[in-house]
Write a structure and sequence with these properties.
CATH topology: Rossmann fold
Bound molecules: 3'-phosphate-adenosine-5'-diphosphate
Radius of gyration: 19 Å
Number of strands: 7
Shape: globular
Number of helices: 16
Order of helices and strands: HEEEHEHHHEHEHHHEHHHHHHH
CATH architecture: 3-Layer(aba) Sandwich
Largest sheet: 4 strands, parallel
Distance between the termini: 46 Å
Strand order of the largest sheet: 5-4-6-7
Helix content: 40-55%
Number of domains: 1
CATH class: Alpha Beta
Amino acid sequence: MAISQHSLPKYLQDPLVSKECKDLMSTLSKNRGWVLPVMYNYQGFWHSISHLQGVLSFQKHFPAQDTDIFVVTAPKSGTTWLKAISFAILNRTSYPITSGDHPLLKTNSHELVPFVEDIYADNPNPDFSSMPPPRLFATHVSHVSLPESVHVSKCKIVYMCRNPKDLFVSAFHFTNKLRLEHMGVNSIEEMFDLFCKGVSLYGPYWDQVLGYWNESLQRPKQVLFLKYEEMKEHPGTELRKLAEFYGCPITPKEEEEGIVDAILRLCSFETLSNLEVNKNGTLTTGLSNQAYFRRGEIGDWKNHLTAEMVEQLDMITEDKFHGSGLTF
Ligand code: PAP
């Protein structure tokens, strides 16, 4: 049965695509997508149509400011969490953490810290003039595909990566949730095969991680590299590191008042996933907020991957990260 475009959530509707994007698409390699039927390889990384449109406009039109901050992740690396923590740290003067009407209690962090390529997918010339510095943006775009204005600026970038086995399992569940009934679910074997070949949204995963890892080694003042697992295991240390990097370190008075624990509590999986907005709310993209909260744990891959899959993924990861100094 044909499904009308208007009855689809926005993330499944055909986007308005420019002639430039259409011309480019016809020259790019294609592969099957995880949610939409097709993904396109642009500058070495896989994109859905609307993301491709967004990335092109972002590259062409984004006027970076030296004070801008970007939180960057591969999808399912803990983006929702990093956005929430970053928003809480940077806005703690305007929005005291323990106040009962903190924005994070009513609004999902994806609305408070939007993906810049999503903004550009809808509008090639968005108006950011009402955003006071430092402007906080998010992106899943690889380092090579960031706009030139970002490359030449003194913007700060925080990249958070996650163990590829947990990231894959999270992406597998998430994308199956996004598929409508008539699309059927993807099998884990099929998606695993694509992931290992590097075909995942904004992937290959390893290339994206290495791009930001190398940059963090070369420009440590501009690029901070974090791991989801370290954030889970030593959250206070990582949060203090983030605040320092953002140029607003936790002060001795704030330490005394217990602000670090307060931010961690506010942004915890338990707090956020139990809020009304995140249980029943929907993003402007049409995605349900609830889809961003599954288990929030390290090691769920043990419940989903066979020994052969683990061996294969570990071998690829070892091979790709060999000599980089990056381990999992
Ligand atoms: P995105 O990259 O698609 O924007 P992202 O937040 O990275 O979303 O994906 C959700 C993952 O982060 C989920 O992981 P899981 O599938 O392994 O459970 C989700 O549970 C986890 N997550 C969301 N919020 C938090 C949080 N506050 N603390 C820890 N993990 C979280």
